[in-house]
Specification:
By secondary structure, this protein is α+β, with helices and mostly antiparallel strands. The protein has one helix at residues 40-54; strands spanning 2-5, 11-17, 20-26, 32-39. A hairpin with a 5-residue loop joins strand 1 (2-5) and strand 2.
Length: 56
């Protein structure tokens, strides 16, 4: 699992679950406020876009 911090004190946890990825967004209190499950292809596309955006 990989964890990223958000600007407001929350976290984004990304973990592989079999052939899919699970994204879990938690607020600063540690409460889960969103979960998204996506295919490997979609997850890599999303992460690539984010990396591209951060590099500009």
């Amino acid at each position: 699992m990989q964890t990223f911090s958000t600007y407001d004190g929350g976290t984004l946890n990304v973990r592989r679950v079999g052939p899919r990825f699970d994204f879990e967004l938690r607020n600063a209190k540690g409460e889960t406020i969103a979960t998204v499950e996506m295919s490997e292809d979609c997850a890599y596309a999303l992460l690539s876009e984010l990396t591209e955006e951060l590099d500009t």
